[in-house]
Amino acid sequence: MLLSALVRACVLRYSLALSTLVAASLSPGTAAPATTSHRASRSTVRAPAAVILPATASAWDLAVGQAARSALGHAQGAVVAMDPHTGRVHALVNPALGMQRGFQPCSVFKIVVGIAGLSEGVITPETVYNCRKGCWMWAGHGPIDLRRALAVSCNPYFEWVGEQLGYEKIQRYAHLLGLGEPSGINLTGETAGRVPTFVRPEAVGHLSSHAAGVETSAVQLAVLVSATVNGGSILTPQVSGPADFVPRERWHLPATTRLEGLADGFAAAVNEGSASAAFDPEVAVAGKTGTCSQLGWFASYAPADGPQLVVVVFLRYGSGHGASAVAGRMFRELFGPGGGPVAAGMP
Fold first, then answer.
1. How many Cβ atoms from other residues are within 10 Å of residue 38's Cβ?
2. Which of 122, 243, 258, 301 counts the most CB atoms within 10 A of its CB?
3. How far is CA 330 from CA 220, 283, 312, 316, in A?
4. 310 has which bridge partners?
5. What's the Cα-to-Cα distance from 173 to each of 22, 195, 248, 295, 332, rounded to whole Å?
6. Is 306 a domain residue?
7. 241 lies in some domain
8. 15 has a pLDDT exceeding 90
């Protein structure tokens, strides 16, 4: 009964055919033309975006796809849901915005700067920086460490780390984490995104906190966040059912890469920081928000203490806080009381 109801809910089945992707990119809920004004795009009534699922979708895939589409609603954006340990993509809502186009990742890029800073010995999780005036919070955050800097998305902290690193090292870690090139997902039309080849020294700080000049897709960020919880494996995302699925690792991060302290910061973002809209006492969620240029991001996973699902939400004309609310609704439906992987038939 559940499966038939979900199938009848107009969930788009996965296909590698180009015609399917073109149809998806033209479906309601995709990006508005460049000539569309902000006012018009906000007032236009949109139908829910299309969902790409595996051709042999399991009950869990169907449940994830339905939860993602329901949580996004009529908002203009995209959702990617992926297994962080295998790269199996359970659902992709609106591929035109989630895979085929790149957007400035805003403060989600602070993950790259944090990993570079830890790995290059510029910071440890306990390193304290004094955030004074000049942050998004006018008075500054005061003395702040990595956990708190991730939680509240402190700009001066990551600007300082980036300036200590220099752009060459930031660029290297961005590429190591899969940015600036296609992820290899088995769908047509994937963007490579963009990592600048050169950044003036005086602009490195701003890039480190706002990702100015960088372009990524939601799929690329799902791979990046997965690497922080799976021990450093850069996976090839694959839209596939569970039967006969074989994980593919593109490469593994160098042994010198340090990820310590990130998980605490991601959890704190939900429990006490910029992603508080995703908080739920029944479901432990972790992630990093991003807000800039009228874009909103939330790169996340749950359960926080044993990640089973990575979810990246992207919103046009939104905020990171709003994106975290979308992910929160999705995680509550999937992992909250009465739901959960067992009830939904995971995998």
1. 11
2. 301
3. 20, 11, 11, 18
4. 82, 301
5. 33, 11, 21, 23, 33
6. no
7. yes
8. no
pLDDT band at 46 (very low <50, low <70, confident <90, very high): low
Query: The tokens 């890039």 sit on which residue?
Result: 207
Q: Per-residue pLDDT for 23 more than 60?
A: no
Give the span between the Cα atoms of 172 and 168, in whole angstroms.
6
Which domain does 263 fall in, by range? 49-285+314-344
CATH of the domain at 339: 3.40.710.10
Residues 6+ apart with CB under 8 A from 75: 315, 318, 322, 326
Amino acid (1-letter code) at residue 234? I
Domain count, the chain: 1
The predicted structure's pLDDT at residue 26: 29
298 by DSSP, 3-state: which? Answer: strand
Average pLDDT estimate for 91-99: 97
**pTM attached to this predicted model:** 0.87
150 vs 140: which has the higher pLDDT: 150
- Beta-carbon neighbour count of residue 306 at 10 Å? 9
Non-local (6+) Cβ contacts of 37 within 8 A are none
Look at residue 312 and give its three-state secondary structure.
strand
| Among 142, 147, 146, CA closest to 131 | 142
